[in-house]
Amino acid sequence: MKKTTVKDLLSTPELMGTEVEAKGWVRTRRGNKHVQFVQLNDGSSVNNIQVVLDMARFTEDQLKPVTTGSSVRVTGKLVESMGKGQTSEIQADSIELYGTADPASYPLQKKGHTLEFLREIAHLRPRTNFFGSVLRIRSSLAFAIHKFFNERGFYYFHTPLITASDCEGAGAMFQVTTLDLNNLPKNEDGSVDYSKDFYAKPTALTVSGQLEGELGATALGQIYTFGPTFRAENSNTPRHLSEFWMIEPEMAFYDISDNMDLAEEFVKYCINYALEHNIDDIRFLSERFDKGLEERLRFVVDNDFVRLTYTEGVRILEESAHKFEFPVYWGADLQSEHERYLVEEHFKKPVILTDYPKEIKAFYMKQNEDGKTVRAMDVLFPNIGEIIGGSEREESYDKLLARIKELDIPMKDMWWYLDTRRFGTVPHSGFGLGFERLVLFVTGMTNIRDVIPFPRTPGKAEF
Amino acid sequence: MKKTTVKDLLSTPELMGTEVEAKGWVRTRRGNKHVQFVQLNDGSSVNNIQVVLDMARFTEDQLKPVTTGSSVRVTGKLVESMGKGQTSEIQADSIELYGTADPASYPLQKKGHTLEFLREIAHLRPRTNFFGSVLRIRSSLAFAIHKFFNERGFYYFHTPLITASDCEGAGAMFQVTTLDLNNLPKNEDGSVDYSKDFYAKPTALTVSGQLEGELGATALGQIYTFGPTFRAENSNTPRHLSEFWMIEPEMAFYDISDNMDLAEEFVKYCINYALEHNIDDIRFLSERFDKGLEERLRFVVDNDFVRLTYTEGVRILEESAHKFEFPVYWGADLQSEHERYLVEEHFKKPVILTDYPKEIKAFYMKQNEDGKTVRAMDVLFPNIGEIIGGSEREESYDKLLARIKELDIPMKDMWWYLDTRRFGTVPHSGFGLGFERLVLFVTGMTNIRDVIPFPRTPGKAEF
């Protein structure tokens, strides 16, 4: 069933000297009256296969529609290439056109395009070398994630996207409704009658699957989620999407130390997987956009992450001579500049900070004996700052309930979550990784809109 | 990093005779003054590890809170079990309680529960053997899907969930909004002012990622999607969810025959993966709920699927003596009863029907020469009926445009899709599989609400 791809043609010595077939899109055609060269790509690799057309066998007219972006089927003999950096090429016997790409209107001509321009034509940008590489790396990383957890006995657990809880607290939510907004059913007091809505109550898109993930972990032991997540914040920054993918593992019988071990092993595994499976794409991006990329990836894979408490981290920042835009003091939520200083300047290694002040962390984190901090952990990376956030979870029913009351979280949304602590509660931990943050790091891209096929941001829901 | 699970304790001969640790939830405790037996489960297997407590070393008081649903840590020596069907057990040195489960309030006591009751406590039902098995199989199938496509050079392509298109046509949609429904901004004519909405226009949850998937395939070659999908139909049936997961592969340079080969190989691969990795769970479900399950799975894996046209299929149905509830005639949309008759009664094999009347299929399917049919394919299964639907896609810009106009599909939503045919169009194909349909088939369950952790159906969005 498997078809021969351009990647196969470039990397399978057994094919050399045989009759082959290649199907793909023309990147360029150049040459003269005697010989023409077509660079053909089918998405399987950032590299093209060169098709050599002996013009004694083809006519100019025949090749006229073979322009950048057109699609063709080529047959011929695979031979060693004389060209620099190319292993093999096809000496064409035939070239058949599937579809033209009118040079006057096809937007992806040879000349370079800005990333901003390509965002406007997101439906075509996967056809560029550049986005091809990003999307192949994205796909590899996704597979690495599934493979990592599968090998360790974790179950992939699908938490719901539509939720009636408004207590997740991680951010502003999108409402989901089937009511006709131009003809809303109303209660006697004039408010919207949600009993007529699809779910008979107000519902929204989830901002995190963690709480449901804990239900899975306290039954199946070790689970992970990997799915779309939503934030309705009006944030027009290079780091925010309103629809993104998140990975949230949750593990029974893990304390914070196990959690840190897992997070470190996990993120190294994923990066290493990309280095092993996508080195051509990484090097292409390295050369074009970010010279330090490959080195930075190896730096993370090869170094033990430094582990210290938030309190120790703040002390280092306070004692440093560095001028920060945002002030540093115990109790402050660290900014990306602080996190990057610790990683890039001070330790020159990835860092895991633990035991944050409880006021700046979520209600479900395990409370430390000191009454001031919780057993949180954030993994900090060069260039990115926080890439993973997690914690040991509070397993004491009484302590969790007290914190929920303290923060005025509505109990109507919490009974099922509290049941995990009422019945057979266990120590457990988990963390969350924004998938696009990882893809940003591994591709060296700087704008999150460029690492997802069709970005959703305020005012933008095209394609 | 990997921890020793109950599954390991039951299946690792090297552990026999060593000191081990087990953490999990108590399924049952029974025994007498001399010896007590705890069945311990941690979600890693449908099978429990038996913990033997010599009452010369433990007190009744100490074991009193060790009730069904409580959580414990046990240490002791792993020895061969004398019990029937058990390979190993732990002779306990210590037992430590993590959390109680008050027998007066814990809903999952030993006695059997109806599936209806368990649906009401979906936050706890993963703790039952039954849902544990279903969810482990679900997770395995999801991994098998990723593995299958990864091995064949497909890229996992994340299509957006929030969409501004209303032309997908596969079903009723949920609206997504950040407008305050109790205080809607209005235009001068009294209609809702969507320029104030998050995306500055009406948006909805996707009913299919296929159109965007085609953008991926016509750039990267072979892609697949695997993500949540939504239908806002008010269907309260055992076969419908308003939020479910769907797999949609899309392949450049595949004709309908390649598409059928891939679909058959794919579904057999997934089922076979579950048979190889989840045989304990499958046999448990087989014994408890569906005696024919394992045999039915092997039947699908071991048989070539029969391939015939819709026209031939209708003829067989018309000529059969079977009484159908719904009439059969050329042009009719086949019902589950018709599909199952072909599979279960006539051919006694899975069936792929092709070349359906264009009126009952989607606008994007490749039009046959006869002017009446399209190159659609449906894969039909025992018990389930249609499990996969797909087609070769119409690659001709002119034919596709004509069909779009014929069906009055708004062009404002179609320009980007049509660009795939304007620029370097290629023959391509794809199909869709509702993930829960596959999980239903492999688990033998009959209600789709029982194969997803937290089902969303009309009026139901709990947890």
UniProtKB/TrEMBL annotation, chains A, B:
UniProt-annotated location(s): Cytoplasm
- Has keyword Aminoacyl-tRNA synthetase? yes
Q: Which SUPFAM superfamilies match?
A: Class II aaRS and biotin synthetases (SSF55681), Nucleic acid-binding proteins (SSF50249)
* A molecular function GO annotation: ATP binding
Q: What is its EC number?
A: 6.1.1.22
Show the catalytic activity. tRNA(Asn) + L-asparagine + ATP = L-asparaginyl-tRNA(Asn) + AMP + diphosphate + H(+)
- Provide a GO CC annotation, any one: cytoplasm
Main EC class of this protein?
ligase
UniProt keywords (A-Z) are: Aminoacyl-tRNA synthetase, ATP-binding, Cytoplasm, Ligase, Nucleotide-binding, Protein biosynthesis
InterPro entries found in the cross-reference section? Aa-tRNA-synt_II, aa-tRNA-synth_II, aa-tRNA-synth_II/BPL/LPL, Asn-tRNA-ligase, Asp/Asn-tRNA-synth_IIb, NA-bd_OB-fold, NA-bd_OB_tRNA
Kindly list any coiled-coil regions of this protein.
Answer: none
What's one GO BP annotation on this UniProt entry?
Answer: asparaginyl-tRNA aminoacylation
Report quaternary structure and partners: Homodimer.
Q: Which family does it belong to?
A: Belongs to the class-II aminoacyl-tRNA synthetase family.
Protein name, UniProt field: Asparagine--tRNA ligase
Q: Which gene encodes it?
A: asnS
